[in-house]
Amino acid sequence: MFNRRQFLKNSALMGSAAMLMNSNVMAKQAKPCENGKLNVAIVGVGGRGGSAVKALGDMKNVKLVAFCDVDDVRAAKAYKQYPTVPRYRDYRVMLDKMDKQIDAVAVCTPDHMHYPIATWAMSKGKHVFCEKPLARTIWETREMKRLANKYGVITQMGNQGHTNEGWRIIKEWYQADLLGDIEDIYIWTNRPIWPQGNLAVPPAQPVPSTLDYKLWLGVAPYQPYNSAILPFKWRGMRNYGTGAAGDMACHFLDVPYSAFDLGCPTEIVGNSSPFNAYSWPKEASTVMTFNNMCGKNGKIKLHWYDGGRKPKAIKRVDKSFIDDPRNANCTFIVGTKETVYTNEYGVGTRIWPNARMKELAKSGALPKKTIARSIAPNNPHKEWAECCLAGKQSMANFDYAAPFTEMALLGMIAICTPEIPLVYSPKSLEFLNYPEANKYIRSLYAYNKEFIAEEPMFVF
Description:
The protein has about 450 residues and is α/β, with parallel strands linked by helices. It has 14 helices and 15 strands. It has helices at about 5-30, 50-55, 75-80, 90-95, 115-125, 140-150, 165-175, 215, 245-250, 255-260, 320-325, 355-365, 380-390, 400-415, and strands spanning about 40-45, 60-70, 85-90, 105, 125-130, 155-160, 180-190, 265-270, 285-295, 300-305, 330-335, 340, 350, 420-425, 430. The chain starts with a helix and ends in a 29-residue tail after the last strand.
């Protein structure tokens, strides 16, 4: 008879095998790149896109063949560095004109344009890298997963923590029965570091001549231009971003989600400071409950805090550490035997306190590494490109990224229905006890069909 730890080990092996089988199916359509070269187009080369330009541009087997950006000022550095690469403002024009010259597309835009750009590229058979969060709404993430499988392309979401070994180490510790059963997970972040809260819609300002504001808005409803929104401050605005939790949860939550195969929470409850239809709150917290075999009595509670909120107490952690403002981004995983610390990217993972970690290491109690590591630690762009070159699916593909992002976005819905314990059914895509919250599952705006590659559908 299997205990839960043995079951998890076997499940992990079966899951890996299933992922490999799925990868092989996709690889039949997404063959290794001809001539061993990957031609990549990048949409959004300023800001975060600069990391994609550098990581992919530094690879010998990758050729940057097209840049697309609506803001000439933000894109100026990449344009100067690669003066001969064709430039576009409209991703649709780029993909039409350079269709046969592009193998893959990296999407590095504000959240609200991830879905339309990625699906347009996938519909043309392009491999896709998409920054986190995968999309703004649960429905969008599911559509992206469906279309990735429909077109047989290699995909990856850009949360660098998934390429690090933090979640792998914790999974190995759990499987070796070092941690015991998992009781609680505590996560806090100092985000937002951009404006959020009960903000008023700013007045209209002249649109800079270097910006195509209509293309920046894309599928979002019209709102007059104001420098208080872009280029960076859009993250806290509900029509464009997913706020502090939506943004950073796709870093922090990856560690426990991957280490314990958390799946989808059965109940979510949240609260926050005041906010409105325009902007996400300045601070918030949520509690997610998971029915999970790794948990004590089959349950794990995950506690999320942002905007300066923190837990009052954590088993085996001094309160002085929690209260210290220098400790602004932390994850603690509490087991019945040990407590684990790691940061937002799964770096610095260790048993807490440090003295206990040294004791375990000295005694030889820490298990050997048994889980395969990433081919490109802390470099998701490179991992994706290498997978495209080899014709193999990445570990952070949309089959993984869609349900993971769905879990993260549930926290955003919970703060829209404060203090109501939402009972969620991923199978029927609805809240069973509070149907009023179902409107947040799909996009809050009507899509402008001008930007959509194909008529959206949904298959359960």
